[in-house]
Write a structure and sequence with these properties.
Length: about 375
Amino acid sequence: MIPNISTIPLIQLASGDQLFIQSYQFTGENPGKKVYLQSNLHGAEISGNAVIQDLINFLITLDKTQLTGEILLVPVCNPLGVNQRSHYFSSGRYNLYDGKDWNRIFWDYEKTGANISQFAQDNQDLEQNEIQAKYRQTILNQFHQLAKLIRSYPGVSYDNYYRYQLQNLALDADYVIDLHSSTNNALDYLYCFHSQEASANAFLLDTGILMNDYDGDAFDEAFMKPWLALERELAKLGKNIRFEIESWTVELGSGLEMNPESVQKGIRGIKNYLATKGLLSIKDFPVDFTPNHRIHLTPKDKIQRYYSPAGGMIKFYVKLGETIYKNQKLYTILSFNKIGELPQIREIFAEGDGLIFDITKNHSVNQWDYVLGVMPS
Ligand SMILES: [Zn+2]
């Protein structure tokens, strides 16, 4: 299968050079679902690029008959963020123009003032696939109003232009997968919306975070939130529908590196997910034990995050991936002072039992800096 490669201009720099994004579109013999997959939205989170590269190499070896539907891949999807540096380090989490997190800028149909309740009432008697098609078209029509703004140059800012280009590739998809990593050192896990729990197992990851608090500004949220809103409105009318529309953020290990194990887990999980959803007919997938695999999901508001109570240098007594117990020593902070006293060592103990899934790369901390995250057991 040969992909259709499209190059989309994003921004011309002061030097005259230009930045682009490039998509790789694989189209199967028969029509079906569309999956959209992107990586490296945050500049330091590079493992997903290796996953997409591997998927491209793999899909090229397949016959068109082995794909039903469409797979659209966009690696290094945020060139400005990817190229950004502080010293040698990729900082690229925030847009330097306006300080906004690159993953909190996206267009959410629900926030346009759309009357989703009215839509549900007007269309509740249609078949599920008809409701889905009509609602999708309604979202797309509204989204393309943005295009008018984009075309009315110079009336557009870069963040508006950029989000339009990315979401334009993704909004008509059935499944959206956004590949991230931690900015720190972290395990592999995913973010899961309510009602998608069963599908989450197909990624074959051990842990995940169940979203219970979100505003629709992140890429996965902006895609999914309007569909969840429609499901809620239909449920109020006694019509319990779950649309076959899903959105995922998959966190592949640590930032600033392409850890081979995280990359392998990413590839295996995505192949398994796509085979489970019927897009790919490939050897060995879905893996036999998929029906028995259970991801452990922790509600987002139950995650325990430790912030440093003092400024100084950290020495850890625990490791990433370790199960910890209440009152166990987690780390010490070496703090110097300017009041004529000797330096102090302060000990920090666990507030409860759980799994360390995320831990700071930088062992030098200012007071209140993030130190580590725990999924309670
Ligand atoms: Zn990220």
